[in-house]
Design goal:
alpha+beta; two-stranded antiparallel sheet; 11 helices; 12 strands; 13% strand
Length: 333
Amino acid sequence: EQVFIELLGQQDIPHVHGPTIERNADEVLIEADLKTFLLSRYEKEQLTGDEADRIILQLKSYAASDLYESNKAIMKLISDGFILKREDRSQKDLYIQLIDYSRLTSFRNPDAEQLPTIVAEDPVMYGKDQNIYKFVNQFEVVGFERRIPDGILYINGLPLVVFEFKTAIRENCTIHDAYIQLTTRYKRDIPELFKYNAFCVISDGVNNKAGSFFAPYEYFYAWRKIEGMTSEVDGIDSMYTLIQGMFDKNRLRDIIRNFIFLPDSSKNDEKILCRYPQYYGANKLFRNIVEHQKPDGDGKGGTYFGATGCGKSFTMLFLTRLLMRSKWFASPT
């Protein structure tokens, strides 16, 4: 836990001790952070305090009893944004995003300065990051039972990533126990927390994996590589690649917005979090399509090779999402 606190601090994600946060024990949002973000982000549009409160109330109104459907609905709001009807009916409806995706630098395009300006700003741009980040530990949540998750990463008061830690030293305390703690005990006792969950991290220091709260244990994966590395890593090194890879603040927002898939209808409560080859593959393909676009390019988008079962279909889905949301491609068919 202490190492994660220190490494996340190196990503400019500050540590906050849970008991110092003022709230009721049954509340999982940090409402003050969300309201502060909304009023700051939409200051020019003169968003009112009552309108910000209405947005928070809308989020809280989703029922934790139908956890999957509530999580799907909230993740759609977080990823896509939504339209807010104004108190003053003479004002135009306002498009609201709960996370600021706009003021970032384009790490999607390493040679951004050589590309057209609009591409260099699409779909992730550098600049001032208005979001409020906190890694919170000792955060007591009272639901059907009292539970204290090992760590929660908040963005703008939203508990988007839940961490559960075990020790690698004791044989009877494994990383699988961390998975069971999250998906069985916490799901049963504090479901309200997971309405807002993007994904979870389980770690014993040596084994470090991320996955969807609704996924079987075998679909939790290590993030074993960061850009520029020639080979994958395992063991303790995978803790560094996980944090430097997934929890770079730009990449984290990118994953939350573009690389989590919830199907329109699902019999099995499916929620897919990208693996690192899918993330890097979709981004490389996106860059290649930009660089080879006709009439200046040869129109060759690129070829993606992968073994059976590696998730090529999801890679294409993530790529399609990047293309659909791209200002440069202007809603391609």
